[in-house]
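Complex 429.
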Amino acid sequence: MPAEVPEPPANKPYAAKVFKDMINLVWPGTTYDGGSIVTGYQIEMCEGTKNSWKVLTKNVFSTSYAVKGLKDNSTYKFRVSCINAIGTSKPSIVSEPIVASDSKGDDYDEEDEPDEASFEPRKVKTRKENVKEFYEIREELGKGKFGTVNKCVEKKSKKMLAAKFIKAEKPADKKECEHEIEIMMVLQHPKLLQLYDAFATGNNMVMILEYVSGGELFERVIDESFDLTEKEVTFFMRQICEGVKFMHAQKVLHLDMKPENILCVRKNSNKIKIIDFGLAQVMKKGLKVSCGTPEFLAPEVVSYDEVSYTTDMWAVGVICYVLLSGLSPFMGDNEGETMSNILKVEWDFDDECFDEISDLSKNFIESLLKEDKSERMTADQCLNNDWLKKELKSTHALSKARIKKYVIKRRWQKAFNAVRAMIRVKRFI
Ligand code: ATP
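Predicted structure with adenosine-5'-triphosphate bound:
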């Protein structure tokens, strides 16, 4: 069947943030790309009550756009069209009227914001070509044990993406990377980072990933402008549990849940995505693993016993504990001590910072940090737990000083681990 123009975005655009001279718009992707991938979006604006539409841009490559230069207290409406190689779709449903002002729109709730990847779900097959023929590689975004992650732009579509470079010197390394690609193919969910393309040439493997620009979740919460309360923590935990629930429904264990693997979609957004499926495994009876990051390891990993879906939920409990308190429940002076604390399941809420924290949140953590993995809550049970289910009124500010200290410590650890890894993994770009 010949390709045709795409369908418009599945719903109207929303205002993610409103200022007196700027509106940050977001919208969902198309319902059908017409048989040719959506390469960009056209944004149109209508001012006041007039019905005359002005094209603002045809060069937007993600599902959000900051409309600048607006007049304070003026009302605007927007509509968005999808573009593919054949042409431009009909416009989307028109947005609600939005008043440019320094307050958040009354009807705006971040949870209603469309939750899409910057591209439609796609089937990826590893290509044996040179990545640089198709993508322009830009600045470094981060470093991990297995290599570096750089920003990149697809030459054809001008889409902004991320390229994860992995040096696969041994056949086993290559297999691991192919395994990560296979796993990512079954993990198509808004809370899980999406794969766009993949390359394998010689010893070099490159995964082209959805680009998320908001940085690590813990860096966001320590930002001066961020108000960290229990309510915000529930918003993050709910999204983490949604992502993990989907993974588990696909029979996949993440096995490396930790703060660095939770990224914010954009600066100033509380929407998150879980990344790094490098250690993920398809669940099977008798599965044992000996990998992960010490502070977040469940007792059954430390003792090399059989793991289960609730092995990830232990780590979710540790992340929640750290987010609420800035303290790491099992952290010892060295890895050995940390492992020993985990095996003894030695942790508590004794620090005075827990005096201000609700019993509901403590019950939530207690139901995850249980030695017996069959007694821990599943991701689905977490989502139905009162702490996450009820809309919290509490706005008591949590102390960011300890979280800052924690983040700085982890930065040092990460830099140290990356240097250690770089001795083994040479960059090749
Ligand atoms: P680890 O040592 O944690 O196992 P890794 O080698 O598997 O790491 P990732 O965790 O996937 O690599 O990425 C390393 C860092 O790069 C992340 O912590 C993050 O800061 C950044 N990063 C990764 N993917 C993206 C992305 N899609 N968009 C933006 N930044 C990213």
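DSSP finds eleven helices and 16 strands in the chain.
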